[in-house]
Amino acid sequence: MDHHIKDIELAPAGKKKIEWVRREMPVLSGIAAQWKKDKPLEGVQIAACLHVTSETAVLMITLKEGGANVALCASNPLSTQDEVAASLVKDFGINVFAICGEDRETYYQHIDEVLERNPQITMDDGADLVSTLHQKGGSRISQVIGGTEETTTGVVRLKSMAKAGQLRYPVIAVNDADTKHLFDNRYGTGQSTLEGILRATHILLSGKKVVVVGYGWCGRGIAMRARGMGARVGIVEINPVKALEALMDGYEVMSMLDAAAWGDLFITVTGNISVIRKEHFLQMNDGTILCNSGHFNVEIDRDDLESVSVNRREAQPLVEEFTLSNGKKLFFLAEGRLVNLACAEGHPPTVMDMSFANQALSVKFLKEQASSLENQVYKVPDDIDMNVAHLKLSSLSIKIEELTPRQKKYLASWEEGT
Question: Which part of the chain is the S-adenosyl-L-homocysteine hydrolase NAD binding domain (predicted)?
Fold first, then answer.
């Protein structure tokens, strides 16, 4: 099977979407143009488990322009843009296994499909591809020279594997690049999360009490954007330093139980399990909205929510209404999956341009340097990170200052003082 998608006839609409976002991705497009000449990935087999969106399509096309053979599956059952999947197959000859709304069984069948192509390099978003490969083992894993990981959640899982001595090949944590998490996580997640919520609910954010659970880079971005739209923002954190930072950034900081009785809208971005549970649901106000922008649908405990509910119905597409035993109604978005991708289209291409440029250049780095790396999780090399930043500034026609020879000498010395 070369592909498994919803409908190949959706390709024309998908191609238009891809062409539209390419205009906002000049760094990756520039890499693709150069790679079309140089073919640095000639013959490399790549298995990718990423959100199948128009931005991801530009990355897949770039890898193919570089000479790679690419197979792509979805990293989330609800994030696939079916028309983009169709265009990748029909217009660009890329093997895609992804259907929006696929069940769990089909999701893992699609992961198996891309692994059956015996990849040399893996590209992951959440580490489901890598963990599946490691669990099934066999001869396939011995052919893999390295991989990349896009998300905070995936990096945490991979570092846990490495610490336990279970990671079988080196992985580059693209998420940890400055040109990824400082922009994609903060500005991309901040904007796209609120866009997903507004598309699904059409609520007015101004005046709402919004609780952001987790104050990492994603939480910072969401809180900043919510406040910018007039919301009153509360932060729930377990890390005392991040809690202090949130407080000094001007937000209310509170426990989850206190927040439950205070908030109107809850957004989880922790990467952890069951951060909103039974005792919290029972404290919430009538009409409270619950959603998640962390990678997996485990942050809001659905089993607990069902256990304290007497009725559930679909209020509108991707919005479930739960009537609790106390008579209050809670609204749960997108089954607890990534609200920015399930209810909207994910991060804007401008920020994904930098994230995926890091991905592409890290794949090239692995092809050339993987034999010298250990089975650990590595940062994106600094020269790649800085190069992506320079390329992005250049695409925006922005010039920055350069050190003079005297300044370089001063910074490298210790003799000069006051």
Answer: 185-346
Is 397 annotated to bind a ligand? Reply is: no
As annotated, the residues of the chain forming the CATH 3.40.50.1480 domain(s) are: 8-180+347-395
Question: Which residues, in sequence order, are CB contacts of 309 under 8 Å at separation 6+?
Answer: 322, 323, 324, 325
For 8-180+347-395, CATH number? Answer: 3.40.50.1480
Q: What residue ranges of the chain are covered by domains with CATH 3.40.50.720?
A: 186-342
The DSSP line for 81-101 is: -HHHHHHHHHHH--EEE--TT
216 is in an annotated binding site: yes
Does the annotation flag 242 for ligand binding? no
Question: What pLDDT, on a 0 to 100 scale, did the predictor assign at position 295?
Answer: 87
Q: What share of the chain is helix, strand, coil (3-state, %, to 5)?
A: 50, 15, 35
Q: Is 152 annotated as a binding residue?
A: yes
What per-residue confidence (pLDDT) applies to 302? 97
239 is in an annotated binding site: no
Residue 151 marked as a ligand binder? yes
State residue 139's pLDDT score.
Answer: 83
3 in a known ligand binding site: no
Instruction: Write down the pTM of the prediction.
Output: 0.91
Q: Which CATH class is domain 186-342?
A: alpha beta
User: Contact, 130 vs 149, CB < 8 A?
Assistant: yes
Residue 96's pLDDT is 98
335 marked as binding residue: no
Using 50 as the pLDDT threshold, list the residues of the chain that sit under it: none
What tokens does 134 get? Answer: 């490691």
